[in-house]
Every structure is written in structure tokens, then in C-alpha cells.
Specification:
Number of domains: 2
Helix content: 25-40%
Number of helices: 13
Largest sheet: 7 strands, mixed
Structural class: alpha/beta
CATH topology of the largest domain: Aspartate Aminotransferase, domain 2
CATH architecture of the largest domain: 3-Layer(aba) Sandwich
Radius of gyration: 21 Å
Shape: globular
Order of helices and strands: HHHEHEHEHEHEHEEHHHHHEE
Length: about 350
């Protein structure tokens, strides 16, 4: 077998560990001999796309011989109208993750820096390191973004500051006052990326709407949202950002020519035009918009076994889950990751 020439692969990739998604449901079923598995690994919506989105997917299937609208004009226009911003201030990408990749390519050069909390969404650091930039990961405090420490970590080489709000994986948020103080102090040479992928799940009155409260008040920020979570379109990969027009133009240069498929665009449009569906989902699930921590479901992975054995609120929460679905959650750990599967009793 032939080897690639020495020096062909960029050195910046040497220390990067590829993102590893959770095991497919089918593989877990085969390994453990289970008939039914509920996958919680990737924070996917359990209810699937809205009925209107499924209809849009079916209608668009006949046009798959044609390339999609590369600029996603109709979807961008609908999002601009929904949020009361200019068309030129809306960027589209393959999920929020695709936008993080595009922002990194548009902004970072070798030797630049980004700052983010840790543990948090790993793509912030991965995409920076791919470009030879340095990722400064600031430890969380009480499982929340420590915004003061994040500001202290900023240097003259810092170009991007990521704030995951609410944070993935801890499910915690920062208060409006904390974010206000952060934006008042963040240096002018830094672009803040406010990742609100789980925006629709939160109804805490102290939770900030990044578009209304920071972008529209001329803060140097791009606010990310997605159709992957509450809208049930994770498999379609549709995310968007609202940010400065000059940055949106740059993102148009870093994304691939036909990044969003026609079915994905049509499903997202139909989801936007489905009044009442979000509330229907909450009613069907018996959910209220609270953080996972409030339910006692956050488990620090390195301490999983001892946590499960001794943490009474978690055991109680799992018992409530058993009562709801008629199955007992079985927890298994692989390295720094864990999986909960529901086994019928």
C-alpha cells in the first residue's frame, strides 16, 4: 500500500481527535440484545419533524435531480422576517456546526486564538485547531460558563469568544446580568459567537434572546440557532446565524456551493410556518422548559458509576422515567461517554 508523501498532511491536524458520535441504535441493540433503545447521546428531538415538514420533504423529493438554491434565498428571507433583521444579516449553514466551521475559516489564521468554556461543544476548539489557531478552554464554574474568567483569558491574539447558552453538555445558562456585563467588557477586536442551539427549550425570564438583546443593540456578535433540536430536523442539517452583514458575506465564501439540500430548505421553511407545533410537542411530552440539571439528569461522565450509585435525585429521576415509558434505564459507560438505554422489565 502506498504512503502519502512526508509533509503532505497539515501539521495542525496531528493533535486533533475526530468527533465521535454515539453508537448507532442498531449496533447497541445487537450488542446488548435489546428490542427497544432510546438514544440520548446526541440531544436529538424524540418526536421527529413537524407534519408540515414531512409533507414538504415528500413534495421536494421529485426535484432531487436538480441542485438546490445555493443561497437558500427563501429560507433566509423567512428568517430575516421572523427576527426583524435584514436579509444580508442572516447566514445559513449545515447545522449550527456548519456555521461554526464557516466562522472559523472566515476569521482565523494560524497563531490566532479562540476562547470558550470547557466542557462545552467540542467543535469550537476542533475547527480552530484545524486552522492552526490556539483554543483556550476555560473551566466552567459550578457547571456554568465563567464569563469573567473567559474575559481574563482573552489576549491580543484572540479573535473569537464562544458562549454556549445554554451550555452543551451541562444544560446550564448564564443570567442576563452576567451576559450584559460580558458584552460591556469584551474587547472590540473580538467577535462573540453566542450559540443558542437550545433557545426554544428555555422559558426562564432571566434568559437572554441574543438576537433581540445583543445583535440588535449593535454588539459585535453572531447568534447561532438550529432546526436540529426542537424542530426535529437533525438529519437534515439546517442551522442559521444572525450577525453583521460583512461577516455573512464572508460566510458565503467559506461554505460549500450547495451546502443545504432542497429538502432540508423546504422542511425548515415548513417548520417555520407551522404555528402551534412547538407547544404541541411540549404538551405531548409533558415537558416544561427547564434545564436538564433541574431534573437531576446531568451526570459528570468521569464519575458515572459512583454518581449513579449514590446520587438519590438521579435515581429518583430515572424511576420517574421508568414510570413514564414502562422501562428501566440501563446505564453503560465507554471511556468518557455514557449511554442510557431503556430495558423493558
Amino acid at each position: 500500500m502506498a504512503d502519502v508523501p512526508a509533509g503532505l498532511i497539515r501539521p495542525a491536524l496531528a493533535g486533533i481527535i475526530p468527533y465521535e458520535p454515539g453508537k448507532p441504535v442498531e449496533e447497541v441493540q445487537r450488542e446488548l440484545g435489546l428490542e427497544r433503545v432510546v438514544k440520548l447521546a446526541s440531544n436529538e428531538g424524540p418526536f421527529g419533524p413537524f407534519p408540515q415538514a414531512l409533507e414538504a420533504l415528500e413534495r421536494s423529493a421529485g426535484d432531487l435531480n436538480r441542485y438546490p438554491d445555493g443561497g437558500a434565498y427563501r429560507l433566509r428571507a423567512a428568517l430575516a422576517d421572523r427576527h426583524g433583521v435584514r436579509f444580508e444579516e442572516v447566514a445559513i449553514g449545515g447545522g449550527a456546526d456548519g456555521l461554526i466551521d464557516g466562522i472559523s475559516q472566515a476569521v482565523l489564521d494560524e497563531g490566532d486564538q479562540i476562547v470558550c468554556g470547557w466542557p462545552s461543544f467540542p467543535s469550537y476548539a476542533i475547527y480552530a485547531r484545524k486552522l492552526g489557531a490556539e483554543a483556550i478552554q476555560v473551566p466552567l464554574r459550578d457547571d456554568r460558563y465563567d464569563l469573567d474568567a473567559l474575559l481574563d483569558a482573552i489576549t491580543e491574539r484572540t479573535k473569537l469568544a464562544y458562549v454556549c447558552h445554554p451550555n452543551n453538555p451541562t444544560g446550564t445558562m448564564n443570567t442576563r446580568d452576567e451576559l450584559d456585563r460580558f458584552f460591556a467588557r469584551v474587547p472590540s477586536h473580538v467577535l462573540t459567537v453566542l450559540d443558542q442551539a437550545y433557545f426554544e427549550y428555555v422559558d426562564d425570564p432571566d434568559y437572554s434572546d441574543g438576537i433581540e438583546e445583543y445583535f440588535k443593540t449593535a454588539r459585535q456578535v453572531i447568534v447561532l440557532r438550529t432546526f436540529s433540536k426542537i424542530y426535529g430536523l437533525a438529519g437534515a442539517r439546517v442551522g442559521y446565524g444572525v450577525g453583521p452583514a460583512e461577516l455573512v458575506v464572508a460566510l458565503g465564501k467559506t461554505r460549500r456551493a450547495f451546502d443545504l439540500t432542497t429538502p432540508a430548505q423546504e422542511a425548515a421553511l415548513a417548520s417555520l410556518n407551522s404555528p402551534g407545533e412547538l407547544e404541541r410537542i411540549f404538551a405531548a411530552a409533558g415537558m416544561t422548559r427547564v434545564s436538564l440539571r433541574a431534573l437531576g439528569l446531568f451526570v459528570p461522565p468521569p464519575y458515572l458509576q459512583a454518581f449513579v450509585e449514590r446520587h438519590t435525585p438521579l435515581v429518583a429521576a430515572l424511576q420517574r422515567l421508568e414510570d413514564r415509558v414502562g422501562a428501566w434505564p440501563v446505564m453503560r459507560a465507554w471511556g468518557d461517554h455514557f449511554l442510557i438505554v431503556l430495558r423493558r422489565t
